[in-house]
Amino acid sequence: MVAKIEWHPDDLFPRLGFIVTNMPMEADRITRFYNLRGTAEQHIKEGKQAITWTRLSSKRFFDNEVRLQLHALAYNLGVFLQGVELPEEMADWSLTSLQTRLKKIGARVVRHARAITFQLAEVSVSGNLFNRILAAIQRLHAPPAPT
């Protein structure tokens, strides 16, 4: 049994937790292992909720395989966006937040003689924040090609 005590700056009392296991390791390694396991489970949960990668409703194996690969690609794109140096307001956004705030933005397309304009709703992302997100994405560079 490992007792885990965490002190957080804004808490009045420490947080107590216990890990009961039969793993023959030192307490630090057991704590690190279970913390990493919890992190992995959070990623799986977020993949299920944000991307619905468990919705494989086709009867054909190939169709489900392609759908799961597309879900994995969407998940990797979301994780990539979390790693990009995006504006500070987005530092704690999860994949679900990215999806609901960026992907599901209502827009109206206005066509003029020389230009097409997208008028975006500012429900969850302001125009200023959206422009800073686009600027951060434009600053990305592809890795150098192997020689």
Textual characterization of the structure:
Helix 1 (27-51) runs parallel beside helix 3. The model has no long low-confidence stretch (mean pLDDT 80). This protein has a domain at 1-49. The protein is built from four helices and four strands; from the N terminus they run ββαααββα. It has 147 residues and is of the alpha+beta class. It has helices at residues 27-51, 61-83, 95-103, 127-138; strands at residues 2-6, 15-19, 107-111, 116-120. A two-stranded antiparallel sheet has the order 1-2. The chain has a two-stranded antiparallel sheet with strand order 3-4.
Q: Which terms summarize this structure?
A:
147 residues; alpha+beta; two-stranded antiparallel ribbon
What does this entry show, briefly?
The protein is α+β, with helices and mostly antiparallel strands and 147 residues long. It has helices at 27-51, 61-83, 95-103, 127-138, and strands spanning 2-6, 15-19, 107-111, 116-120. The protein is extended.
Let me know the number of strands. Answer: 4
Based on CA atoms alone, the radius of gyration comes out at 22 Å
Low-confidence stretches: none
User: How can the largest sheet be summarized?
Assistant: 2 strands, antiparallel
* Count of DSSP-assigned helices: 4
What structural category arises from helix and sheet content? Answer: alpha+beta
Helix-strand sequence: EEHHHEEH
Please identify the oligomeric state. Answer: single chain
Global outline: extended
Mean pLDDT: 80
Instruction: Kindly estimate the percentage of residues that lie in beta strands according to DSSP.
Output: 5-15%
